Amino acid sequence: MMTKDVFRDTENTADQMILIVDDNESERLRMVLLMQRLGLTTIYASDGEEALEMAKRYNPGIIISDWYMPGMSGLELCKALRETAYGADVYFILVTGEDRQQHLAKGLSEGADDFLTKPYMAEEINARVTAGKRALKSRTKLESSNNDLRAQLEASEKSGSRIKDNLASAAKLQTRMLPPKNSVLGEFRLGHIARTAEDLAGDVFGCIPLNEEGDIGFFHVDVVGHGVVAALNSFSVARLLFSANAAKVILTTNGKPSPAHTVVERLNEYFKSDEECDQYFTMVYGVLNSKTGEGQLCQAGHPHPLIITPGGAAKRLGKGGLPVGLMEFSRYESVNFSMEPGDRLFLYSDGAIEAENKNGEQLGFLSLSRRAVTQRELPLQDWLENLESYVVDWTGSETMEDDLSMLGLERIASKSGKMAEIQ
């Protein structure tokens, strides 16, 4: 007979304690034994209501819950935890027997961080839990760093420091790195918006011409956190991608565009975190031929890109994947897509879908995508600004809790048949 506290470490930190929730006793035991092999302090619950009480009492850093349970489901448990002080930051992994995109999207919209699909292997659980532990550790270090920076900034302001002026200069430098709004590349028009939560942005995006055949690379990056630390990391990512060396070594292979997932894997190796520095980030990287509209992209922990057609169809792209720099030797997948005249490719940071109203409710993927469809007749830049206003209105405040950025690529009809340059 197992007790609620299966075993304990001498140092019981949040990232070392895990709560298993499953109404099936054999599955629960199997998972507990797997966690024991990983050296984790493990507690368990047989239903959602009991799990809420255990979470409140022990404050675990990671929760693995079965989706389907009598009474409160794993999805309902996740949503309930997100509304509490003790469960808002927990790393929540849902176990499900289904891997349909709509099914997983529902879980993400309710606050799940990751998924395990039955049947699962011990190695897969190990990888998911390791990712959760690193995310919790990074969050703690980042919060500590941000608190230290805020304290330093406050002290500098009182003493007449020039830090504010330096931050303003850095913000201008970040703005200059962004592509011009309504610029044209081949048969594509580019638009964007960028709203920062603090003085500096942790989001960065852009387009990079790769060759004379009309291939362009595009990216949208969201560095973990926001403020000075995130801005420094995002600046280093953008500077690398825009460098001449990146075009030769990272973005292309023998003069041809490298597969999107290969580029992300190369970046994952380059920006791998270590004990001294956690610098992971989510991103979408893609390659698009600006003459034909044929493209390929790779999603690494970033919100799903969308293609919006003139007729009002919305197609979600991407395979999910782990953030870049989070785990060494991570592997990623590319997806192919094509765009017809009038189609729009829409990329955005999680500051859009995770924006909360005064009741603590997130805007969500479905609300944002519906708005994108209903407002599609607006010109590209007006369309993006309309979506920005929609997110800001949802929060009821001009001050954002997280950086908000959007990038739009629209295929336009070619009038001359000639390759247009960035304007």
Which radius of gyration do the C-alpha atoms yield? 22 Å
Average pLDDT rating: 82
Q: How many β-strand stretches?
A: 19
- Structural class, by secondary structure, is alpha+beta
> How far apart lie the N and C ends?
71 Å
| Strands in their spatial order, largest beta sheet | 1-3-2-4-5-6
Can you tell me the number of structural domains?
2
CATH class descriptor of the largest domain: Alpha Beta
What share of residues are in beta strands? Answer: 15-25%
**And the CATH topology of the largest domain?**
Phosphatase 2c, domain 1
Number of helices: 12
CATH architecture of the largest domain: 4-Layer Sandwich
**Low-confidence sequence ranges:** 1-12, 415-423
Shape: globular
Instruction: State the share of residues found in helices, binned by percent.
Output: 25-40%
CATH-assigned homologous superfamily of the largest domain: PPM-type phosphatase domain
Key features of this structure:
Phosphatase 2c, domain 1, 19 strands, six-stranded antiparallel β-sheet, 423 residues, six-stranded mixed β-sheet, 12 helices, alpha+beta, globular
Task: Give your account of this protein's structure.
With 423 residues, this protein is an alpha+beta fold. The chain has twelve helices and 19 strands. Mean pLDDT is 82; it is low at 1-12 and 415-423. The protein is globular and about 60 Å long. It has two domains: 5-136, 3-Layer(aba) Sandwich (Rossmann fold), CATH 3.40.50; 179-411, Phosphatase 2c, domain 1 (4-Layer Sandwich). A hairpin with a 5-residue loop joins strand 9 and strand 10 (215-223). The strands form four sheets. It has a six-stranded mixed beta sheet, sandwiched between helices. The chain has a six-stranded antiparallel beta sheet with strand order 7-8-19-18-15-16. It has helices spanning 25-37, 48-58, 74-82, 101-109, 122-158, 163-177, 228-242, 244-249, 260-270, 350-353, 365-374, 380-395, and strands at 5-7, 17-21, 41-45, 62-66, 91-96, 114-117, 183-185, 188-195, 203-209, 215-223, 252-253, 256-257, 281-289, 294-300, 306-308, 314-316, 334-338, 344-348, 404-411.
